[in-house]
Amino acid sequence: MVRFSSNAQVHADTMKKLLTILIILLSITRAFAQGGGTEDNKASKFYEEARQHKRFGRVEMAEIYFQKALERDPEYLDALFDLSDMYMKMGKTADAKKHIESIVAKNERYAPSLIVTLAMMAQMEDSFEKALGYYEQYMTIAPPESNNYQAAKRGAANCEFAMWAMDHPVPFEPQNLGPGVNSENDEYFPAMTADQELLIYTREFDAPNNPMSPDGKDEDFFFSERQEDGSWGRAYNPGRPINSSWREGAPTISPDGKYIIFTICDLYGQYGQDKEGFGSCDLFVSVRNGNSWSRPINMGQTINSKHWESQPSFASDGKTLYFVRGRYNKEHDRFDDIYFSELINGKWAKAQALPPNINSTEDEESVFIHPDNKTLYFSSRGHVGLGNMDIFMSRKNDDGTWSDPVNLGYPINTPEHENSFFVSADGEYAIIASNREGGYGKLDLYSFELPEALKPNPVTYLQGKIKDAATGKPLEGFFTLIDLGSGDTIAQASSDRESGSFLVVLPASENYALLADKQGYLFHSENFELDLATNKSHYTKNIELQPIEAGRSVVLKNVFFDTDKFDLKPASKTELNKLADLLEANPDIKIEVSGHTDNQGNAAANQTLSENRSKAVYQYLIDHGISGGRLMYKGYGQTKPIATNETDEGRALNRRTEFIVLE
Predict the structure, then answer these.
(1) Distance (Å, whole) CA 25 – CA 116
(2) Whole-number Å distance between alpha carbons of 241 and 289
(3) How far from the centroid of its chain's Cα atoms is residue 217's Cα?
(4) N or C: fewer beta carbons within 10 Å in the chain?
(5) Res. 636: pLDDT tops 50
């Protein structure tokens, strides 16, 4: 069974993988070693006998005869090599290292790749200056076109960066999230709603009586809610159906807390009751309605495969999912890359790998896309770092490409394995899993303030409830956030079916239209032009959707004209297209488009202006296929104010275009 990887196990797996690499490197090196024999026949005989014992697993006897061979001839490099190889496979790395150092000191050209082995071992011991010396030594004798030369070049770059980073630490003062969240067990892979009120994470715990946990361990999600004093409340297990006797882990939660996407791994080809998978670990989704969660559903073969899919991150746009896919080679070693899929016309598209400047030739994992939809954080051992798995940041450019990753620096990153990284929606702080001293048990969750250069773009959010204007009943409405400059859909979401509550993330410093609609109702629109330097942290607004019936009206808050003019501005197309869609979907209704002004200026001029503006909307609808027989337009000038004309805010509300359902 393929397990989820807690940081503790990830680190153990990483060390195992590094040792495996060293063993493979030694094996390959042995094939090219030359000039390491002996002229002492007795030593040669001891050596051959040692190799026979080694071949059949009699390591104690092999060690004795290797030592006898070396006592006869201390310069017998082949014997030194095979003994160090055996020690490495036995896990006796210190003994292996001592003999490899001896070989390199006696003849660095006997097996030059041994120098790379020593460099990697020095890195594992955080001896970066020593490791750099070995890498540079190797590059002076190896051909530049060789694979090991390139590996040495990368290793040297890592060592140089590690030494520089440790001399130039970034601010890092982690604070334990407290006993409400952390326990004597491992806590990792955090995620949080945009309002920072709900924290979810994975906890591993002992389950000796669970038949679905052959190793006596289980993983479940735990929830913790923010308290009035800002602390985190006592974590609780939400139970079924999202948690089960199978392992559930590595969750992501949508900004509004409505969707959880997470990983379930197979056990003997099974994924749990009423669940199906496609191989290894798959991604599943569960939807919250009120206080209950739906049965988890496999996200399908455009996302899942026969390979390992895990560690998802659901973007705040409601239509992009990032995750990690691990592909296995013939030796069953897994190599991890970051993939993404987009929701197109209600279906997830075939997942694609992120570009090579993100996905390196080594492993990437623990991906997180910030709610700004532009700042990506992930762990990698393939980019220049402190030598193991470091956390990096990349920003999405305006043309859709990703910037080259930036290492978050030391001591956020260390020579150990860093992952389980999450950044709050406001971008002020991050949460990370760590087994540092002073915690409550094993891996704990910590928060720390992000250095300014590592912060994402600011975002805010709109929250509230949506209901029927006639009955007051909560509604499950659909929201679309549209960039009025480009016409692109920035985010999409829906309100809770039972409570009508919603939360939509609003990226800052842009001009947006927010449209809410539901079949059988007139749509509702809002306009947001955000600048977080002056605006508050978030917005609250309750929305009433009006049933489609005569006498109901809607103010078109995203229809724009220049002052004293009636030519529609390009940004108006988004909302007018929405109105055209409404009329096409409801072919029996007729509407009147009305124009209104404030009381500034000449009343007659205002009347003419309002008529021309309403006519411009009328003509747009006709040009987009709506029959003129279903449309009327009328200007009311300044005769129907909906707010005071004594303030700028009131006059802005009175300058409006709206439509009313006639029949």
Answers:
(1) 9
(2) 13
(3) 26
(4) C
(5) yes
Identify the band that residue 417 occupies on the pLDDT scale cut at 50, 70 and 90: confident
Of 261, 263, 266, nearest to 279 by C-alpha is 266
Query: Is the previous residue joined to 241 through a cis bond, with omega within 30 degrees of 0?
Result: yes
Q: Please give the mean pLDDT across all residues of the chain.
A: 89
| Interstrand relation of 308-314 and 406-407 (parallel, antiparallel or unpaired) | unpaired
Quick: pLDDT tens for 555-595: 999 999 998 899 999 999 999 999 999 999 999 999 999 99
Condensed to tens digits (0 to 9), the pLDDT of residues 74-94 reads 999 999 999 998 998 888 989
List, in sequence order, every beta strand (DSSP E) within 329-441: 334-344, 347-348, 352-353, 364-369, 375-380, 390-395, 406-407, 421-423, 429-434
| Residues 633, 617 contacting (CB under 8 angstroms) | yes
- In this prediction, residues 477-492 reach a mean pLDDT of 87
Dist CA 533 CA 460 (whole Å): 11
Structure tokens at 289: 């309605």
Domain 458-533 fold is Immunoglobulin-like (2.60.40)
Q: What pLDDT score was predicted for residue 174?
A: 95
Domains 181-454 and 458-533 fall in the same CATH topology = no
Among 546, 544, 529, 543, which residue's Cα sits nearest to residue 464? 543
Distance separating the N- and C-terminal Cα atoms of the chain: 63
Question: What are the C-alpha distances in Å from 102 to residues 69, 96, 105, 107?
Answer: 15, 10, 5, 9
The listed CATH number (2.120.10.30, 3.30.980.10, 3.30.379.10, 1.50.10.10) that belongs to domain 181-454: 2.120.10.30
Global pTM value: 0.87
What are the distances in angstroms from CA 343 to CA 247, 317, 320, 340, 622?
27, 10, 6, 10, 32
Domain ranges of the chain: 7-167, 181-454, 458-533, 548-663
| Residues 49, 471: Cα–Cα separation, whole Å | 92
Burial class (CB in 10 A: 0-12, 13-18, 19+), 49: middle
pLDDT band at 1 (very low <50, low <70, confident <90, very high): very low
How far is Cα of residue 443 from the mean position of the Cα atoms in its chain? 20
CB environment 412-435: b (16+ within 10 A), e (fewer): bbbbbbbbbbbbbbbbeebbbbbb
User: Domain 548-663 has what CATH class?
Assistant: alpha beta
For the cut 70, the answer to whether the pLDDT of residue 6 exceeds it is: no
7-167 maps to which CATH number?
1.25.40.10
What tens digit of pLDDT does each residue of 168-204 get?
Answer: 999 999 999 999 999 999 999 999 999 999 999 999 9
Beta bridge partners of 198: 225
